[in-house]
Automatic annotation (TrEMBL):
HAMAP family, per database record: Ribosomal_uL16 (MF_01342)
Subunit description: Part of the 50S ribosomal subunit.
Gene3D superfamilies the UniProt entry points to: Ribosomal protein L10e/L16 (3.90.1170.10)
Keyword rRNA-binding tagged: yes
Keyword Ribosomal protein: yes
GO biological process: translation
Record protein name field: Large ribosomal subunit protein uL16
Protein function: Binds 23S rRNA and is also seen to make contacts with the A and possibly P site tRNAs.
Alphabetized UniProt keyword annotations: Ribonucleoprotein, Ribosomal protein, RNA-binding, rRNA-binding, tRNA-binding
Family of this protein: Belongs to the universal ribosomal protein uL16 family.
Annotated GO MF terms: rRNA binding; structural constituent of ribosome; tRNA binding
GO cellular component: cytosolic large ribosomal subunit
Family matches, as NCBIfam families: rplP_bact
Length: 139
């Protein structure tokens, strides 16, 4: 599971998403390493568990061939209060980490395998993620 080694603050302010002013990723929007990639077409927060599930799915479909790059990292902590606890009494404890993903961001890249295998692996991985995605290739 991915998480930062050290954080400056244990709990971050959540922030809110305004659908009218959704950002489009500029940084990390092009294929840098591989020939095939999975690109987000909608914004969302992706947890470290979801990234790991997608990674395992891609690795299983690759069958130890090719190379995989994970282009997002969960660096934002999210908190949660225990079950059946009344409101108030402060903020909950950190539960895990999420990566804030904007539309246009490349999530995974693949190289060293044929196109059909790459597209099948990325299609299966997209089912594990909370974002709408599309498969992109290097021109």
């Amino acid at each position: 599971m991915l998480f930062p080694k050290k954080v400056k603050f244990r709990k971050w302010q959540t922030g809110r998403r305004n659908p009218k002013r959704d950002k489009v990723a500029v940084r990390g929007s092009q294929l840098s390493f591989g020939s095939y990639g999975l690109k987000a077409t909608s914004p969302a927060r992706v947890t470290s568990n979801q990234i790991e599930a997608a990674r395992k799915t891609i690795a299983h479909s690759l069958k130890r061939a090719g190379k995989l790059w994970i282009r997002i990292f969960p660096d934002r902590p999210f908190t949660k209060k225990p079950a059946e606890v009344k409101l108030g009494k402060g903020k909950g404890e950190p539960q895990g980490y999420v990566a804030q993903v904007w539309a246009g961001r490349i999530l995974f890249e693949l190289d060293g395998i044929d196109e059909a295998t790459a597209k099948e692996g990325l299609r299966k991985a997209s089912a594990k993620l909370p974002v709408k995605t599309r498969i992109v290739t290097r021109d």
